[in-house]
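[[Encoded backbone]]
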Amino acid sequence: MRAPTLRADNNQLTLLKRRVLPPPLRMTGKERRRINPNRGVIKVAERYTDMLFSRFVYPLLGSLWNPYCWVLEQRFSLAETTVTPLGWPKDLAPLRVLLITDIHGGIFLKPQTLSGIVRALMQMQPDLVVIGGDLVSGHVSEALPYFDALAQLSDAPLGAWFCLGNHDYFGGDPLELIENLAVIGIKTLKNESASLLHHGKGFVLGGIDDRIMGKPDWQSLTAQQRPHLLMAHNPDFFYEAEQRGIPLIVSGHTHGGQIRFPRGHAIIRQSRYCLDEGVYAYGSTLLVVSRGLGSVMLPFRWGADPEAILVEIVPPR
């Protein structure tokens, strides 16, 4: 891990730690977990327990016990990786993408803590910001206190873009969240794509709806143009995206396991295909999975510390 290099100016994030991700892990496409995290009685019960706690239990406990902002201030880091997707436009200048996922606004996260983190991250001068879903924990109204902090993300030259995660469907109308984000300059892609210009050359950014709670629609996503960069909250879209020739996907959802013992497996397993964190390769497609910023079920992390990822995309020669 590199030495801390950036200092936020509101004392909520004293130092921004930085680390470099390992090279892409080459997958066989046969990796499976015995329990499918998207189906089955156990996982459905877990999902509804998550919804119950996020919406009703933790809001009552938050004023009594809320250590998570301390975890963020002590352990949050910026992970960095440089990738060269094979299908990336060859004439495009290197592109710096800041990936922030799983913010989980709610009782675990103070607005001033998020503001300090965002301010420090934006000093890295990303070209594009991607917010990879789960902006809230239990209800879309939980996003409201964070809009001043999130508005800073739209200062990136190519803007800030959002795709929906499963928690964004837990309570309220997701359309309300989308409209409120648009007011602060953050655009949403839901089964659709947008063409962007970077130093005079174009590429396509896409966003697909959540795999569990949403209605993902590949046909609508690729109807006009195939994305070069795909926002997908759930990393288990990886192999479907590879089949459609999408060069690069960025995801979250897994929290890196949230709690992991040294050299151990993820405790919370949210990926059927063992795509828990880091960079993966299959065929001609790359996947970047962030541990994310926030926390669910428990206001704590261990062995899978919170992070954002700065992805530098370099075109193939």
Summary: The longest helix spans residues 41-61. The chain is about 20% helix and 25% strand. The longest strand covers residues 201-208.
